[in-house]
From TrEMBL:
The lineage of its organism: Bacteria, Bacillati, Actinomycetota, Actinomycetes, Streptosporangiales. InterPro entries: DD-CPase-like (IPR052179), VanY-like_core_dom (IPR003709), Zn_M74/Hedgehog-like (IPR009045). It comes from Streptosporangium oxazolinicum. It comes from the Bacteria. Residues 29-63 form a coiled coil. Keywords: Coiled coil. This is D-alanyl-D-alanine carboxypeptidase-like core domain-containing protein.
Length: 344
């Protein structure tokens, strides 16, 4: 099958390589995230290419239709001229021309006879020209009709091939996300009642969350953490889970989380109950699913836990923002930086 899409080569790779990563290092969510994002990008590019191809098809077919209509108009115009002329020539052939044939052949024919004969000759010549032009029009019409038929057949084939490649890319993307989901379940991420992890664990949906106002992200777009009752947007959650695994290896226990994503109502509650220690409702990074408040030692400035997180957090895209060092001073507040995370 001819490849029409930029992601076609990638589509041929089965997600076995991704599953191998999971088997070799179950907590390597960064590699899985890269694969999922790449598969989603390939699918997006392929879909755009298909839409562009369809636009080109529509444009070319319109151009052909215009040409065919112009030919039909020309044919009708020629028919209007051709028919009276043809009738006149036929009539003249059936009528005797002034003077007899013998006189004409002997050179004794009159001027009227000669003019009539010349007129007939001119009419016949003009009729022949019109018929010749009409024949050319017919040939051109048949050529364009054949071209249109060939174009449509080629477009249908190309679109079918592109559609098949897109379906392959979509299947691959889904399998990678499934592999990612299995890895999360193994790491203790709770699943929904229907037996599936939250849809927000798909990191490819993270950017689409920008469509939702701060604090109004639907539950389906949020990914649960290992810490019960806490959740973040997909890319931040994956990075935090990886960070948590590294933290566990260092301290022998998971990170302690007191707060993560906050709905708008929760932001309002915190703002009024803890004045000066919470952002204005609708402006908090907690409402974007990109921030956590930590405990278990991290909340104590310059503790071993704080220092370790300060040193290692960026490896997973997590930082302690500059403002949290001074005003207001919040050693427990940590944020995920998508720009840093995308480079990992």
């Amino acid at each position: 099958m001819t490849s029409f899409l930029p992601g076609a080569a990638a589509a041929q790779r089965a997600p076995a390589e991704v599953q191998a990563v999971v088997a070799a290092e179950p907590v390597n969510l960064t590699e899985l995230r890269r694969e999922a994002e790449k598969a989603a990008k390939d699918l997006e590019d392929a879909t755009k290419a298909l839409e562009q191809r369809r636009t080109q098809i529509r444009t070319s077919e319109k151009e052909l239709s215009v040409k065919l209509r112009e030919l039909q108009v020309a044919e009708r115009a020629f028919a209007q001229v051709r028919q009276p002329l043809s009738d006149l020539v036929g009539f003249l052939y059936q009528q005797p021309i002034g003077g007899d044939v013998a006189g004409f052949l002997s050179g004794d024919s009159g001027a009227d006879t000669l003019r009539a004969m010349a007129g007939v000759t001119q009419l016949v010549a003009e009729r022949d020209l019109i018929l010749e032009d009409s024949s050319r029009l017919q040939v051109e019409r048949e050529r364009l009709a054949g071209e249109a038929q060939e174009l449509r057949a080629g477009n249908l084939l190309a679109e079918a091939q592109m559609g098949a490649e897109i379906e392959t890319l979509r299947t691959r993307s889904q399998k990678i996300v499934q592999s990612l989901t299995k890895a999360l379940v193994k790491l203790g991420v709770k699943i929904n009642k229907d037996g599936r992890p939250a849809a927000g664990c798909d990191p490819t949906r993270a950017t689409s969350m920008d469509e939702f106002p701060n604090g109004l992200i639907p539950q389906a777009y949020l990914c649960p953490l290992q810490q019960r009752g806490n959740q973040l947007r997909g890319d931040a959650a994956l990075a935090f889970i990886s960070l948590n695994e590294s933290y566990k290896r260092q301290f022998g226990r998971p990170m302690c989380v007191t707060d993560s994503y906050r709905s708008l109502a929760e932001q309002q509650s915190v703002y009024y109950t803890r004045p000066g220690l919470a952002a204005v409702p609708g402006r908090s990074n907690h409402g974007l699913g990109l921030a956590v408040d930590l405990c278990g030692g991290v909340e104590r400035f310059r503790s071993a836990e704080f220092n370790w997180l300060e040193t290692n957090g960026k490896k997973f895209g997590w930082i302690h923002p500059k403002w949290a060092y001074v005003s207001p001073f919040e050693p427990w507040h940590w944020e995920y930086d998508p720009k840093i995370g995308s480079l990992l």
